[in-house]
Amino acid sequence: MNYINKKIDGLNPELLHQILDKYSKQSKIVKWDLGASSSRDISVQVQHGKAKQLKGSQRNSMTLRVWNNNKVGITSTSDLTIEGIKKAMQGAIEASFFGNEKDSPDFSSLAKAPLKEIKSNTSHEHGIDELLILLTDAEKKLIETHKSIDSVPYNGLNESYMERIYINSDGANRYMKLSQASIYLYAKAQEENRKPRSAGGIKINTNLEKLDIDSCINETSNKLISHLNYKSIETKKYLICFTPDAFLQLISAFSSMFNARSIIDGVSLMNEDSIGQQVAVKNLNINDEGLHPKNIGAFSFDGEGTPTQDIKLIKSGVLTNLIHSEATARQFGVKPTGHAGLGAKVSVSPDWLVVGKCKNNLDKDHNLTIKNTLKEYILIDELSALHSGVKASQGSFSLPFDGWIVNDGKRTSIDAATVAGDILKILNSIIKIEDEQIVTHQGISPHIWVEDVSITGEA
Amino acid sequence: MTNSLLTKQSENLVFHTFDETLKPQIEELLSLGKSAGADIVEIFLEKSDNLSLLAEQDDISNVSPSFGIGAGIRVFLGTKDGFVSTNDLSKPGLLFALSQALGMLGLVIGSKNKSNFDGLNFLTDYGKDKNNWLETSPDLNESTIKLLESTSLLSKKNNNLQVRRASYSRNWQEVIVAASDGVFARDIRLHQTVGINVIAINKKNRSTSARRYGSSGNPNDLRNWNIDQSVTELNESAQRMLHAEYVEAGQMPVVLANKFGGVIFHEACGHLLETTQLERGTSPFHDKVNKQIAHKSVSAVDEGLSNYAFGSLSMDDEGMEPQDTLLIEDGILKTFISDRAGQLRTGHQRTGSGRRQNFSFAAASRMRNTYIKQGMFSPDHLIESIDNGLYCKSMGGGSVGPTGQFNFSVEEGYLIRNGKLDKPVKGATLIGEAKEILPRISMCANDLDLAAGFCGSVSGSVNVTVGQPHIKVDSITVGGR
Questions:
Q1: Helix (H, G, I), strand (E, B), or coil: what is residue A49?
Q2: Which of A6, A83, A385 is opposite residue B399, by nearest beta carbon?
Q3: Class assignment of domain A128-230?
Q4: What is the pLDDT of residues A190-243, one digit of tens each?
Q5: A391 contacts on B by Cβ (under 8 Å)
Q6: Where are the domains of chain A?
Q7: Among B4, B13, B207, beta carbon nearest to A40
Q8: Positive or negative CA dihedral for A148, A154, A159, A162?
Q9: For residue A400, which residues of chain B lie inside 8 Å, CB to CB?
Q10: Chain B window 167-196: which residues touch A at a Cβ cutoff of 8 Å?
Q11: Mean per-residue pLDDT, B245-257
C-alpha cells in the first residue's frame, strides 16, 4: 500500500499501528507507543439577542514516543498525514538522544488490563442555528430575571465530540469516544451610583438534550442579584464557610500534595514518607474518582493506557495514597493509578476529586449549617487568581474571592477581599463538614467550615 | 463535500508551501466565499515547529519537540462573524471549513453568485529575510548545554537549593494571511523563552523564586543569555525571601519596581482598552476618550515595534503592520487597541493588534509591548516619599475581572519604613479596580525597562511585553495575613 501523501481515515488504531510498525522497522526502533486524539466542536456566543461569534473546529493531535537504546524521545504533532507521522518518528528518534536514562518511562504494566466500561454517550450533532436559538433565549431569560441585569458579556454554548486512542508496539490498543455539551453565562448588573457587579454559572453534560440551561440561568441570576447589595469588610480573622466549588478549587490548586511526580521532583508539600501521616482533621475524606458517573468527559484510560481508577487520597485525615504514572509507581513500588499524561517525563494529574465526611469522627462544631447558622461568617463562593496566588510547594495562598458576609442568616456581598492562609492549617482547622455532597462541574464536595482564617477587606 | 476531516478519503496536501504560488488557490476560496454573500472572508494558514526543554538539577529531564499545521477561516457578514479552524490543509479540507464558516451565517456557496472580489494584492513577504531563522536557532545539543550550564551554576552559587530548574522553549511559526479585501501577506515568527526557578530550603523555611526572559525575532537570543547575571539575581532573591515574614494586610502606599511591575498596568488598564472589552460593554473607559482617566504623571503606549521585544511583530495576525499606539498621554485617554472586528463593531481604527495564539483562534484585539513611559524621578526618590508602605520588587501573575477588578501577587516584597527599604515580606496580593488605581499613580521614575510575559484571553495565549519605570501608587489594598 502506498501511504505517501495519503490522509489517515480517522483515528483508526489498527491503521496507525500498521503505519508505525512500518516506519519504526525502517528506523530500527522496536519499542514505541502513541497517544492521539481527535475532536470536532461548534460553539456560539451572543450579544443583545444577536449572534456575536460562531465557531467550529476539527482538530487532531498525536504524541509519539520511541525507545532508542533505553532512552526515550517524543514528538507531538497536529499533522496526521503519512508525511506528518514520518516526520514525528524522525523527531522522536532525534529527541531520544537527549533522553534521561535515570528517569525513563516504560510501558504501563496495566496498558492491556481490562477497562471498566464507561457508557459512551455520543449524541447526534446539532446545527449551529439550534445552538444559537438556545443561547439567545438563555441570554434573554437571564436579563429578564432582574431589572439591574443589563448584559451577559461572556457567554457560550458548545457541543463537542472527542476520540482518543493509545496504542503501543506491545499490542496495547485503547479507544474511546464521547460527546459533551456545555453552557456558561457570565452576567453583569449595575444599580445607580453603585459599582457594576458580575457573576457566572457553568453547566456541562453529555449532550445538548441533557444540558440544564435553566438551572444555569437561575444560578447565575440568583448569584448576581445577591451581589448587588455589597459592602466592604474589616480586615481580621473570620469563621469561613467554603462552598463546594471554592473548596474544590483550593484542593485542586494544592493537588501536588497527592501527586507522586511532584513529590519525587521535590515541589510538593509532602515527601516520600508522608503516606500514613495525619494531614487533616479526622473526619475528612478526599478521593479521586475519575469514573464517577457524574464526571462528564471521563475517559476510561489515561495517557499511558492505564485504566482510570478510583483512589482514596485522604481517609480520616490520613494521607493514604498518591496518584501515579507508570514511572512514579515503579519508583514507589506500586501499580500505576491511571492519572498519567504521555511524555518523556510523564505528568500526573487528578481526574475528579470527591470530598466527603468520615462518619466515625465528629465535627468540632456540629451546629454549623449553611441553612441555619446565625452567627457571623464569611461564605466564600469562588476563588480567583489561583495561577498566581498559590505557592503549592510552600503551602501558602493569598487569593481574591467572591462571597458574602453572613449575619443572622442574611447575606451581604463583599466588595473586594482576599483570603490568605496555609493549606495544612486550613485542613486541620476544619470544624464542620456538612453532610450533603454537592455535584459541581469540577468534582463533588459538601460545604466546609473553617475557623480563624485571615481575610483582608477594604473597610 | 466531506462531512468530516476524519472520515473523508485521502487527499493530497495542497497548501504545503507558503508562498506566492498559493495565490490562485486562496483566491478561489475567497471568491467562493464572497460569491456566497460574505462581506469579508479571511484565511489564516499556519505551520509551526516548536521545541521545549527542561533541565532539573543536573539532568535534561524533558525534550519535547512538536510541529503542526492548521488553518482558520473567518467570514464576516455585517458585524457578525463565523470562524472555523482545521488541521486539514488539503483543498477539500479548506473548502469544507469555508462552507462551515459561511453556513454559520446562513450563507451557501453558489447560492448567490455575487462575486465582487477583485483578487489578492501582490504578496507582502515579511518573512523573506527570516527564512533561515529556524536553522540558525540553537539546536538540541546547544540548547541542552546552555540549560545545564545554568542549573550547574545555581548549585555553585548556593547549596541550599532543593530544586534547580531551567526551561527553554523555541516557537517558530510561518503564516499566510489572505483576505477578500486584498490582503495577502506572509511572515515568519520566532519566539524564545528561558525560565529558571528554584526552591530554597533552610530548616523549616522555604522560598520559591523564578525568572523568565523572552525575545522575538532573535535566533541568537539563547546564545547571548547572560547566565551568570540571571542566576545571581535569582539566587539572591531566593535567599532573601527564605526568611521573609507574611505581610500584614491593609491599605498602604506601594512602589512597584520596573520591568514586570508593569503587569499592574497590563491587567488594570491595558485589557480595558482592548476593543473586545468595548464590544462586551465591560470597559469603564468606553466613553472616556480625551478625558482624564489617570494621574497626569501617567503616559502609556502599546506598540509592536521594539527590537527583539517579546510582543513585537512585523505584521499582526490579520496582515496589518503594527503601530506605535499612544494609549494615555498625561493621564488623558487617547486611543483603544483595535483589530478588524473591533473596527467593525466599535468604530475604533485598527492598530495592527489583531492577534491569536494559533490558527484555532479567531484574531482579537490584544496588547503587544505595553508600558508606562518613564518620568523624571529616581527610584530612590519614590521610596523616600513613603513612611509606611510596601516595595514590590518582583511581581507574580495577575488577572482582571470583567468589570475591571484586578489582582496580582507579589513574589518579592519589602516593607518601606521611614523612606527606606526594611525587611522582606511574602504572601502579598494587590487588589483594586482600574478606575480607582490609575489616578493614584502619582510618581514615575526614570528607569523604564521591559519584561516578557504571556497573556491569556479570548484569542488564546499570546507573547507580550509588560513594562514601566518604578512607579508609586498612593494607596492600594494589600492582601496578606
A1: coil
A2: A385
A3: alpha beta
A4: 999 998 899 999 999 999 999 999 999 999 999 999 999 999 999 999 999 999
A5: 208
A6: 128-230, 231-251+362-457, 272-352
A7: B4
A8: negative
A9: 405, 407, 429, 431, 479
A10: none
A11: 94
- Terminus-to-terminus CA distance in chain B, angstroms? 62
Chain B residues 418-457 within an 8 A CB cutoff of chain A: 426-429, 431-433
pLDDT digits (tens, 9 = 90+) for A307-320: 999 999 999 999 99
Can you read off the three cell numbers belonging to residue B430? 494587590
* B332 at A interface, C-beta within 8 A: no
For A153-197, what is each residue's pLDDT tens digit?
Answer: 999 999 999 999 999 999 999 999 999 999 999 999 999 999 889
* pLDDT tens for each residue of B338-351: 999 999 999 999 99
pLDDT tens digits, A370-428: 999 999 999 999 998 898 889 999 999 999 999 999 999 999 999 889 999 999 999 99
* Single-letter code of the amino acid located at B156: K
Rg (C-alpha) for chain A, rounded Å, is 25
Best B1, B75, B209, B481 member to test A by mutation, with max A CBs in 10 Å, is B481
pTM: 0.91
Select the residue of A5, A58, A389 nearest B87 (Cβ to Cβ): A58
DSSP string, A280-333: S-TTEEEEEETT-TT-TT--SB-TTSPBP-EEEEEETTEE---B--HHHHHHHT
Q: Place A151 in a pLDDT band, splitting at 50, 70 and 90.
A: very high
| pLDDT score recorded for residue B6 | 29
Q: In Å, what is the CA distance from A162 to each residue of A10, A38, A55, A315, B5? A: 12, 6, 16, 34, 13
Residues in B touching A153 (Cβ below 8 Å): 280-282, 402
